[in-house]
């Protein structure tokens, strides 16, 4: 009876999800309510988790709870810490959820709500979640080894080196792009710039508090910091309204870029406890609160989605970024559907803290489903805006113009009616000088979030506060990734540099620290500067580059996972990783080819550079701008070279892996797995981690 | 009523413990427990030393995604 009831319930969930998804897909005409998106996403996630992840866990990976995990075998209270599954889920989710699932769907909304939403749901269920889950499992079976180490051992030494290079490349490009998102969010906004600058002294204060006054008391420090941050969000209005102070905090793109580059360098060089960690603590609660509030706000307000399912820009002529749905929608939304960077987290801290293998399903697969849901929420927030407003905010001046009337005329000519005065009023309502040409996704997402929040609490009066709260949240979120990523990149440069000259490997030797910090900050700083001076806003060329790099890393992770499954003898189930791997390889290679060679100057790096060269030769470019144009041409060609290197890396890795696979399948070489030996667990089957802490906790006087 | 209050108290206590573990507040306590389990292991770090050591470890490898 119970089984029948269960079956009926799951059937109902599946039918409800299919119905909602069908409604989203075929609905035309009247605006669709956001609840359809929530229902479709939640039902699909539930079914995917209940059925597909269970299948992967049982048949493909054959998870074994009798096997001791690294957390049990190496429990040292530092790296290897047995952790309750709910706490670890929170850790893992906080680590994988960055600004990507918020910004990517917002940018991809230019195609309409349909392609992005479908990719977020389907891509996560069959790609992203599988990647995170399988890599987590592989790392658990290998004492928590990193993706690079697993690639080296299971694929080849060269494979490991390629994975390491891919990680460094993605870190550099990622940091440059997300820094550009912050620049565009803070540009000409004294309120937002003041708020974000004030988080620096707050973080330093917390750093000193946590280091010397109350070491490690993170909760109380976070609460103090949160109070300060909320105060400076409100105080930002006073600064913006004061002519003299507003002048000080009104910065242009280049000045902001330089400030962020200097910040990145300082954060990389200073002790981690002084700036980097306390800033991370500042955002931890804000991040959880803002994401939860966005979901709750959408459920409460139930806004109509005003963006059509498909816009006219599916043909590749979009103003936000150029390129057709395939492949550009699939690289624009990386995090939220499938993100290679997650494989670094799944083979980082999480496998060292997990209690038993079966929890990898809940943590690896489940956390990625939640991240995908965040992406769907961001898509809803972006699409709940009037399409004309969305395009006015996200389009660069080079395409739509820079005055309210010019922008309104252009978006209206595309079929998305907008009055110039609407943008003036909206900017005034949120306390900004202008909302036009604010590319990068962050400002439009902030407008969407502010509209949802203010419909819940405060109405129009609090729109400005909510907008700047959302901007502060996004910018802090990004800066946390920026400083943490810079430090990790610095350590990778130390490691690589140490192969050339040993002293460079010393991470606590000041000259090496200064030099390696300069190399990593200079690298992403160059991409940032390039984006800032780009007349098309930078996002058009840099976000696809980031998407390609991220998806390439995902392909690397899936190649490693496939090799391991093959060595485990799971040939009949290998399609679980092979299908998303092939899809990603096709996407990255197609988009790379188009970004390098497309004859359309808005898409192809080389054709854009050649187009500029022709314009110089024909005297179209004024003499004063020739030097800048030459710099642009160099940047475009550099982007083409970087894309080619990324492609070369994935092709090399595939060749290496194919050699391995051929050897295994033809039995010419032995399939040697590098798993840690089996050790039976000594923990009881119902062990949840809590008893473990309490029993020993009593011994040290805890509780 | 008393049962509900007890359950709420129990839930809040578990939530508080989980929150402290999640944000790193309870990391030093976990470390001491682990040390106590491993008899004869070397020098025990002070809370301040442990805090800095933890941060240096955490921020030397990818710990935040895009």
Largest sheet of chain A: 2 strands, antiparallel
Q: Kindly, what is the distance between the CA atoms of the first and last residues of chain A, rounded to a whole number of angstroms? A: 45 Å
* Strand content bin of chain A: under 5%
**How many DSSP E strands of chain A?**
2
Content of β-strand of chain B: under 5%
Q: What gross morphology of chain B would you assign?
A: flat
Give the overall average pLDDT of chain A: 91
Helix percentage of chain A: over 70%
- Structural class of chain B comes to mainly alpha
Indicate the structural class of chain A: mainly alpha
Largest sheet of chain B: none
Radius of gyration of chain B over all CA atoms, rounded: 17 Å
This entry's quaternary arrangement is heterodimer
Separation, N- and C-terminal Cα atoms of chain B:
47 Å
**String of helices and strands of chain A:** HEHHHHHHHHHHHHEHHHHHHHHHHHHHHH
| Overall residue-averaged pLDDT value of chain B | 86
> In DSSP terms, counting alpha (H) and pi (I) runs of 4 or more, how many helices of chain A?
28
Polypeptide structure, described:
- The complex is a heterodimer of chains A (703) and B (66).
- Chain A has 703 residues and is mainly α.
- Chain A has one domain.
- Chain A has helices spanning 2-26, 35-60, 70-73, 85-96, 100-108, 113-140, 147-155, 157-186, 190-213, 218-241, 243-248, 253-269, 276-301, 325-332, 341-346, 359-383, 387-394, 397-400, 404-413, 420-429, 442-456, 463-500, 510-533, 539-567, 575-597, 605-617, 626-665, 690-699, and strands spanning 32-33, 304-305.
- The relative contact order of chain A is 0.15.
- In chain B, 68% of the residues lie in helices and 0% in strands.
- Chain B contains three helices and no strands.
């Amino acid at each position: 009876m119970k089984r029948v009831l269960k079956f009926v319930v799951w059937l109902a969930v599946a039918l409800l999800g299919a119905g909602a998804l069908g409604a989203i897909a075929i609905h035309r005409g009247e605006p669709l309510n956001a609840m359809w998106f929530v229902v479709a996403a939640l039902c699909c996630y539930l079914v995917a988790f209940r059925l597909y992840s269970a299948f992967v866990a049982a048949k493909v990976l054959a998870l074994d709870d009798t096997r001791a995990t690294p957390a049990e075998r190496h429990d040292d209270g530092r790296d290897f810490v047995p952790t309750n599954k709910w706490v670890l889920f929170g850790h893992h989710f906080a680590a994988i959820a960055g600004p990507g699932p918020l910004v990517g769907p917002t940018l991809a909304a230019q195609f309409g709500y349909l392609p992005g939403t479908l990719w977020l749901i389907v891509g996560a269920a069959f790609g992203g979640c599988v990647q995170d889950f399988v890599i987590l499992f592989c790392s658990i079976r290998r004492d928590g080894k990193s993706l690079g180490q697993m690639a080296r051992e299971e694929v080849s030494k060269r494979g490991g080196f390629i994975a390491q290079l891919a990680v460094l490349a993605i870190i550099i490009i990622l940091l440059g792009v997300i820094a550009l998102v912050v620049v565009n969010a803070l540009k000409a906004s004294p309120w937002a710039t003041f708020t974000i600058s004030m988080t620096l002294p707050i973080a330093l204060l917390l750093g000193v508090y946590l280091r010397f006054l109350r070491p490690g008391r993170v909760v109380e420090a976070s609460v103090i910091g949160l109070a300060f941050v909320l105060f400076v969000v409100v105080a930002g209005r006073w600064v913006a309204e004061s002519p003299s102070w507003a002048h000080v905090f009104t910065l242009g793109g280049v000045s902001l870029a330089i400030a962020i580059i200097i910040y990145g360098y300082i954060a990389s060089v200073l002790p981690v406890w002084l700036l980097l960690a306390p800033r991370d603590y500042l955002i931890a609660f804000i991040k959880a609160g803002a994401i939860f509030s966005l979901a709750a706000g959408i459920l409460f307000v139930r806004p109509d989605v005003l963006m059509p399912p498909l816009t006219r820009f599916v043909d590749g002529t979009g103003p936000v970024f150029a390129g057709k749905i395939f492949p550009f929608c699939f690289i624009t939304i990386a995090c939220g559907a499938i993100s290679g960077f997650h494989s670094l987290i799944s083979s980082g801290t999480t496998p060292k803290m997990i209690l038993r293998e079966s929890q990898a399903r809940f943590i690896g697969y489940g956390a990625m489903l939640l991240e995908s849901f965040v992406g769907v929420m961001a898509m809803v927030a972006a699409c709940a805006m009037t399409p004309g407003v969305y395009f006015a905010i996200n389009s660069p001046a080079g395409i739509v113009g820079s005055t309210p009337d010019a922008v309104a005329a252009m978006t209206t000519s595309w079929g998305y009616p907008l009055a110039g005065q609407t943008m003036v009023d909206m900017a005034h309502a949120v306390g900004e000088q202008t909302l036009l040409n604010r590319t990068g996704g962050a400002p439009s997402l902030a407008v969407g979030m502010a509209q949802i929040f203010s419909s819940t609490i405060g109405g129009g009066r609090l729109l400005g506060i909510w907008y700047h709260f959302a901007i502060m949240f996004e910018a802090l979120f990004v800066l946390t990734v920026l400083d943490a990523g810079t430090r990790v990149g610095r350590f990778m440069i130390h490691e690589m540099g140490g192969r050339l000259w040993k002293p460079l490997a010393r991470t606590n030797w000041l000259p090496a620290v200064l030099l390696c910090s300069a190399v990593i900050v200079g690298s992403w700083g160059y991409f940032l500067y390039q984006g800032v001076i780009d007349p098309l806003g930078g996002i058009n060329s840099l976000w696809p580059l980031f998407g390609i790099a991220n998806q390439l890393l995902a392909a690397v992770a899936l190649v490693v996972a496939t090799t391991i499954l093959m060595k485990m003898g799971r040939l009949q189930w290998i399609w679980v990783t092979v299908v998303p791997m092939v899809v990603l390889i096709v996407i990255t290679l197609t988009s790379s080819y188009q970004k390098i060679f497309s004859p359309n100057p808005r898409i192809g790096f080389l054709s854009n550079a050649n187009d500029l060269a022709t314009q110089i030769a024909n005297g179209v470019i004024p003499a004063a701008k020739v030097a800048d144009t030459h710099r642009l041409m160099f940047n475009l060609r550099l982007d083409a070279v970087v894309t080619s290197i990324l492609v070369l890396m994935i092709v090399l890795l595939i060749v290496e892996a194919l050699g391995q696979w051929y050897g295994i399948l033809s039995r010419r070489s032995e399939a040697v797995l590098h798993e840690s030996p089996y050790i039976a667990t000594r923990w009881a089957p119902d062990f949840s981690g809590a008893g473990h802490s309490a029993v020993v906790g009593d011994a040290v006087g805890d509780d | 009523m008393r049962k509900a209050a007890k359950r709420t108290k129990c839930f809040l206590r578990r939530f508080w413990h989980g929150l402290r573990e999640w944000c790193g507040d309870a990391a030093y306590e976990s470390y001491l427990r682990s040390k106590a389990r491993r008899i004869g292991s070397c020098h025990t770090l002070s809370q301040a030393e442990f805090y800095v050591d933890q941060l240096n470890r955490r921020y030397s490898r990818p710990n935040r995604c895009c």
